[in-house]
Specification:
Blueprint lengths: L3 H11 L2 H6 L5 E3 L2 E4 L11 E4 L4 E4 L5 E2 L1 H9 L3 H12 L7 H24 L5 H9 L4 H7 L2 E3 L4 H7 L6 H6 L3 E4 L2 E4 L4 E7 L5 E8 L9 E3 L12 E2 L5 H7 L2 E3 L3 H9 L5 E4 L6 H7 L5 E4 L5 H15 L4 E4 L8 H7 L2 H8 L2 E2 H10 L7 H15 L5 H15 L10 H4 L15 H10 L18 H12 L5 H7 L4 H13 L7 H32 L3 H26 L1
Parallel strand pairs: 13-14, 13-15, 15-16
Antiparallel strand pairs: 1-2, 2-3, 3-4, 4-5, 6-9, 7-8, 9-10, 10-11, 12-14, 16-17
Helix pairs in contact: 1-4, 3-4, 11-14, 16-18, 20-23, 20-24, 21-23, 24-25
The structure holds zinc ion (ZN).
Zinc ion binds next to loops.
Length: 574
């Protein structure tokens, strides 16, 4: 049977990554690769590299990497089935209703059915405890409806409900994130929990957050759906669908901490608000939100973790050219509590919002004495570090002014404050001499006409475990292609990174074997140097501690090493 994987391969074969990406990014040829300004983060010098040979791209600024499918999905902000459809059309490939697409749809349907089931359960008299809890928290019927809030009683009812119309396989049920297998039986993952559906930007329910009912000490307070084929935690916000229109309209998004913060804010008419899902803010989330607005107001909890989140958010936001603002909920511990006690306050925080840098610096210097040298140095290095992330020049000069105002440290050309004269960081492709010798060896090996390692190359001289694994593969598979190697290590993130780094940064078309031999020779020299140094240290220790036996043994090993080295030197001179 023609699988979806075959279709994906067919599309990949018919389309060239350079053509596909050129529609979005101006690419210039640089050796074997193409290079351009990254569309996924803000930069001035190009660090986005496309390799037509392995049909992949990589950005050395923000780390984005992938094939045409990843690229289109990301840049168009669409899901995988849509990407597949779009690229199939471009490639002229007639898409059969692929297994993968229908699998997506089936998992979506399970989540949709579950939403209906949970909503019905919430309104059953037998579960009135759950509904009462929501009322007690001040959540209205309107919110329950708008956000599709429900209740998971646990047991087998959900399974029976889901299986009533369509039959789903065990694998599909577990993949939906709503079921677990225990002792051979499939049952609901969420037990006695209030269920908050998480909707995708287009409104489909893709996951849930389940809050345990008070008095039920079953698992954590909040439990989220696991990662599933339709849900990736790091790319989604709670409230992204419900708040999307208002975010556009207000041209501002408020980032708060939790599910109930979002709902409470909606109830008082502030509907441009979302929350990350139980994890720290990610760059994927910021990238997504930057398509709706360039203005972000961080409004996290008033504890230390919340404040650290503001700093991290500020740093991440620089990549996407976002304007950041920040506030806290003091004297209340979180937004939900603030809205309950002083509903008007949120409105005024939004109106009088201050930029995140001013906020962070004010908080940072609050309990420090500028006249104390140690504390003064800490402030300076904090400023230096934070401003190092700011790439926008006009923002940078604004922040420098803010810094002078807040710290009251005079700013002149001779100011000791490095930060005030620091240039924004620019990302560049790391030049070859920054990578260590083993990487360079790998690069030259990968750019040989025939990628092979004969007997004379000894693997023991290599230290880097990942490089070693690649070389071992080459040794076992003489004359393999770069594509074979990429494919072999597709699943191993670290090794894949190394291979991509090598391929994307190599500037010549081909390397010759003399070059490879030279690098190898240097590596061998280093290997012996390293070994000799090790033995010297070990022998010295053994002698100092009076361990006669050990020292004799080491000495012998050392002599063997020396012989081996001499033998190598003689043979390499032949
Ligand atoms: Zn980038």
């Amino acid at each position: 049977m023609n699988s979806s994987r075959d279709q994906i391969e067919e599309i990949k074969n018919k389309l060239d990554i350079v053509d596909v990406i050129s529609k979005y990014v101006q690419l210039k040829q640089a050796g074997k690769n193409f290079i351009g300004i990254c569309p996924f983060h803000t930069e001035k010098t190009p660090s986005f590299v496309v390799s037509p040979e392995i049909q992949r791209y990589k950005c050395f600024g923000c780390g984005e990497t992938g094939d045409i499918f990843n690229f289109i999905q990301k840049i168009e902000n669409i899901d995988f089935p849509e990407t597949l459809e779009k690229l199939a059309k471009e490639a002229g490939v007639r898409l059969e209703k692929s297994i993968s697409t229908s699998r997506y749809e089936r998992i979506e349907t399970i989540n949709k059915q579950a939403t209906i089931f949970f909503y019905q359960q919430l309104h059953k008299p037998i579960n009135k405890e759950a509904l009462n809890y929501l009322y007690k928290r001040g959540i209205t019927d309107e919110s329950i409806k708008n956000f599709g809030i429900g209740y998971a009683p646990g047991g087998y009812d959900l399974l029976n409900y889901i299986q009533k119309e369509k039959k789903y396989s065990k694998e599909e049920l577990i993949s939906s994130g709503l079921f677990v297998e225990k002792e051979g039986k499939i049952r609901g993952k969420f037990v006695k929990r209030i269920m908050f559906p998480i909707r995708s930007s287009s409104g489909k329910v893709i996951a849930f957050t389940g809050r345990v009912l008070p008095g039920n000490d079953f698992g954590p307070k909040y439990m989220n759906s696991p990662e599933t084929p339709i849900y990736s935690k790091k790319e989604n916000f709670y409230g992204q669908y419900e708040s999307r229109q208002e975010i556009r309209k207000q041209d501002l998004v408020i980032l708060c901490e939790g599910t109930t913060d979002v709902i409470s804010a909606h109830q008082i008419g502030v509907k441009n608000i979302v929350a990350p899902l139980g994890t720290a803010l990610t760059k994927e989330q910021l990238q997504k939100i930057s398509k709706l607005t360039k203005n972000i107001l961080f409004l996290f909890d008033s504890d230390i973790a919340g404040q650290q989140a503001v700093e991290k958010g500020f740093i991440l936001a620089q990549q996407f050219g976002l304007r950041t603002y920040a506030a806290n909920t003091l004297p209340y511990k979180d937004l939900d509590e603030m809205i309950g006690k002083e509903p008007k306050k949120l409105e005024s925080i939004i109106k009088k919002r201050i930029d995140a840098y001013t906020y962070l610096l004010t908080e940072y210097v609050k309990d420090k004495d500028i006249n104390n040298f140690e504390q003064y140095s800490r402030i300076v290095s904090w400023i230096d570090r934070i401003l190092g992330y700011v790439t926008n020049e006009s923002l940078l000069s604004f922040y420098v002014k803010v810094g002078v105002n807040i710290t009251k440290i005079g700013h002149s050309k001779t100011s000791p404050l490095k930060a005030f004269s620091s240039k924004p960081k620019t990302w560049k492709i790391p030049p070859i001499n920054n990578i260590d010798r083993e990487h360079v060896f790998l690069q030259h090996l990968l750019y040989q006409k025939n990628i092979s390692l004969d007997k004379k190359f000894e693997l023991k001289i290599f230290e880097n475990k990942n490089i070693l694994e690649i070389l071992a593969f080459v040794k076992q598979n003489p004359n393999c292609s770069r594509n074979d190697i990429v494919k072999k290590f597709e699943e191993n993130r670290d090794i894949k990174d190394i291979i991509e780094q090598s391929i994307f940064t190599f500037s010549l078309d081909e390397s010759n074997s003399v070059e490879l031999d030279n690098i190898y020779e240097n590596l061998v020299k280093e290997y012996y140097k390293r070994k000799e140094r090790d033995y010297n240290v070990k022998i010295a220790i053994a002698e100092k501690t009076g361990n006669q036996k050990e020292s004799e043994k080491l000495l012998e090993e050392f002599q063997n090493l020396t012989k081996e080295k001499q033998k190598y030197e003689q043979s390499s001179q032949l």
